[in-house]
């Protein structure tokens, strides 16, 4: 697969991603720590991919960054400022999150789904929110599908609507949690290409993925997690071709 030709970009939009820093982040559900002292830095405009077995704490990490689940200790810094000192709504506007399941409103068109978020979160007028919604949909290659409802779109197209909805907030960082895992195989590439295009155009991205080809080609940094800790991190070629730990060697032998 190649990730060098993103879906057509009509407006040549460039992003100014902010830095994202996790400092000794520890997270728990009840008494059980599921993330322990995780530190990592995502430089502005770069992409970090997180890989690791199921249950290793990848989703929990993203939930902590976005304040969907409050960290137990440690810090998350966006552009150098602690997100823990900001309102959760502010954080979620500045940091977009795309899940495996798209959560679009079924009775709204693609354009209405994106516009609704803009009106609710940003308080924009109907006309302005629809104008921006159409721009963002064009950007993800769905200009011709703006009037379609989710049931008339493929899974890949629905996921691109969800990405357009997140982009419409003008986030400084985008988080992806297995964004292609629920898609039929033939639809995966289009979404990965779109994500690669965002990376190329300056977005700061933290991407949890099982797509090792994507991680190798697109990531500036790959982080391997196991049992709530970062086991290894580094450039894709180092991690994939010269894994140091036995755990990463075993993981790669299972997934590649
Ligand atoms: N809401 C929750 N309540 C209790 N435990 C949870 C909850 N969500 C996840 N966990 C547990 O936390 C650990 C990390 O889960 P998760 O972050 O979802 O891992 P991953 O995304 O890497 O598969 C797992 O042991 C999981 O069972
Ligand atoms: Mg997960």
TrEMBL record:
* Stored PANTHER family: AMINO ACID IMPORT ATP-BINDING PROTEIN, GLUTAMATE_ASPARTATE IMPORT ATP-BINDING PROTEIN GLTL
Lineage: superkingdom = Bacteria
Gene3D superfamilies in the record, alphabetically?
P-loop containing nucleotide triphosphate hydrolases (3.40.50.300)
Its GO CC terms are: plasma membrane
Q: Does the keyword Cytoplasm apply?
A: no
Does the entry feature the keyword RNA-binding, yes or no?
no
Q: Which organism is it from?
A: Agromyces flavus
Which molecular-function annotations from GO does this UniProt entry contain?
ABC-type amino acid transporter activity; ATP binding; ATP hydrolysis activity
Q: What is its main location?
A: membrane
Entry-linked InterPro entries = AAA+_ATPase, ABC_ATPase_HisP-typ, ABC_transporter-like_ATP-bd, ABC_transporter-like_CS, MetN_ABC_transporter-like, P-loop_NTPase
Keywords from UniProt, A to Z, are:
Amino-acid transport, ATP-binding, Cell membrane, Membrane, Nucleotide-binding, Transport
Compartments reported by the entry: Cell membrane
> What membrane topology is given?
Peripheral membrane protein
What's the name of the protein?
Amino acid ABC transporter ATP-binding protein, PAAT family
Q: Where are the transmembrane segments?
A: none
Give all residue intervals belonging to the ABC transporter domain: 20-252
Q: Name one Pfam family in it.
A: ABC_tran
The similarity annotation says:
Belongs to the ABC transporter superfamily.
